[in-house]
Amino acid sequence: MMKHSRTSFRGSDMDDEAGVTNLLEYIFISGTLLLLMVVLMFLVNAVFMEGPANTLSYHAFTDIGNGVSTRVVDLYIIAPYNGTIETKFDIPDDVAARDYFVEAKGEGTATMIEVRRGDIYSLTSLAGIGGTRGVVGNTTGRGWNRIIYNSGGV
Question: In angstroms, how far is the first alpha carbon of the chain from the final one?
């Protein structure tokens, strides 16, 4: 004769708390990994994106400052003894997809071309004429830029 038995989960390897324990373990580990992933996303942005963009911006600002300085000196060389001369030039509209500001600043007898955006800036000497001629003004990268020389100082 065949004996029928009832199978019960009580007392076996799987008890009532095993399912809850596995679920809680899954939730805690997944939550911890999700939190670490969010922190990592902020770090990746700062280290791998903004750092190289700032380095690129500094080198681009140095090149832009050198270009503006060269244009000012070139205009000074051909400037008339009496009269006015004007030139238009173009510099990049943006660097690393952001605007920037260019300003001629006098520091003692030297004039510097400062290219700036926030904390990133580059100072370029005005190649030899800063002490003999006062250069003032500012611009941005957008549109055409002008340099005007007036022998009367106006």
Answer: 121
